[in-house]
TrEMBL record:
<feature type="domain" description="Sugar 3,4-ketoisomerase QdtA cupin">
    <location>
        <begin position="6"/>
        <end position="134"/>
    </location>
</feature>
<dbReference type="InterPro" id="IPR011051">
    <property type="entry name" value="RmlC_Cupin_sf"/>
</dbReference>
<dbReference type="Pfam" id="PF05523">
    <property type="entry name" value="FdtA"/>
</dbReference>
<protein>
    <submittedName>
        <fullName>FdtA/QdtA family cupin domain-containing protein</fullName>
    </submittedName>
</protein>
<dbReference type="InterPro" id="IPR008894">
    <property type="entry name" value="QdtA_cupin_dom"/>
</dbReference>
<dbReference type="InterPro" id="IPR014710">
    <property type="entry name" value="RmlC-like_jellyroll"/>
</dbReference>
Length: 135
């Protein structure tokens, strides 16, 4: 099983130009898995929290497309906070990690690239169940 230390912030290639920057991501090249689902969180009220679940199989690349937010990662033994505010960086969350998201700035957009299509059976919704899974 993976730990919170196996989850890392990855620098993405940023192509600079006088008219703006671009970052390109390709399956199995820039991202170590094939992206099967893309979604994004936005208009999250300040003070709100999201996440609060784990996944058995899914892994994700998380990008602060705009603004900032904090991911709290938990492997049942260790917790780690990661602040994201740079669209040329991605947080790679491995399988089996509990995640919570907080401290959304005004206008933030949390872009998620996921390795699996949506499947409710892949979610661990209760922290007590997560701790049983990890032990």
């Amino acid at each position: 099983m993976f730990s919170v230390e196996d989850c890392e912030v990855v620098s993405l290639q940023k192509i600079k130009n006088n008219s703006g920057n671009i970052t390109v991501l390709e399956n199995n090249f820039d991202i170590p898995f094939e992206v099967k689902r893309i979604y994004y969180l936005y208009d999250v009220p300040m003070g709100s929290e999201r996440g609060g679940h784990g996944h058995y199989e899914l892994e994700q690349y998380i990008i602060a497309a705009s603004g900032s937010f904090t991911f709290i990662l938990d492997d049942g033994t260790n917790r780690r906070e990661i602040f994201l505010n740079n669209p040329s960086q991605a947080l790679h969350i491995k399988q089996g990690i509990w995640r919570e998201i907080s401290n959304f700035s005004s206008g933030s957009i949390c872009l998620v690239l996921a390795s699996q299509n949506y499947s409710e059976s892949d979610y661990i919704r209760k922290y007590e169940d997560y701790l049983k899974y990890r032990s």
